[in-house]
Design brief:
Length: 94
């Protein structure tokens, strides 16, 4: 292997490193300029009709039934509520 070729590789590597560093600084500066608003929580607490617990709206599962929105802490609660609703409806229609 000739030393000229080796030097060429080293230069390429150095150039690559410089590009990486420049890119890093450019992206860092861009990030600094763009002041991202912090993820805001609405702070709205909703009630899980099934297990009577309150949880943030963001974490709740939404289900619209008869034009009304219900919230649930888990899919299990939602399924159970829907099943309950179905059976209640069945009873009332009789
Ligand atoms: Zn629940």
């Amino acid at each position: 292997m000739s030393s000229g070729f080796f030097r060429f590789i080293v230069y390429l590597f150095i150039t690559y490193l410089i590009i990486l560093v420049l890119r890093f600084f450019l992206s860092a500066r861009r990030k600094g300029q763009r002041s991202r608003p912090p993820r805001q929580l609405s702070g709205v607490m909703v009630k899980d009709e099934m297990c009577n617990t309150y949880l943030p709206e963001e974490n709740a599962l939404k289900e619209k039934l008869d034009g009304k929105e219900y919230y649930f802490c888990s899919r299990e609660c939602r399924e159970r509520f829907i099943e309950l609703r179905k059976s209640q409806k069945g009873d009332s229609s009789l």
